[in-house]
Known about the structure:
Layout: H1 8-20, H2 24-37, H3 43-55, H4 59-66, H5 74-87
Helix pairs in contact: 1-2, 1-3, 2-3, 3-4, 3-5, 4-5
Amino acid sequence: MDLNPNHVNIIMTMGWISIVSGDPETGINYIERARQLNPNMPGFALWTLGEAYLAARRYQEAVDTLMKVPNPSTDLHLELAISHAYLGN
């Protein structure tokens, strides 16, 4: 990050590391920053952001974000179902 603070892939990796390390709010910040730098990122960026919202217990934001992922996989539908369940849907 020190050598290239605007490298989108590095920022996304930092976001993922934050999520799996138990700090999803920091992960959300990294991913949103990466998406600002490159708003045309592929669907994995939205999926990762949705996972971060789910980990942060921000379930409606997780649903809203995961619904935007193009060509969702089965795993994504599982995370979407989990988010809906927490919302009582």
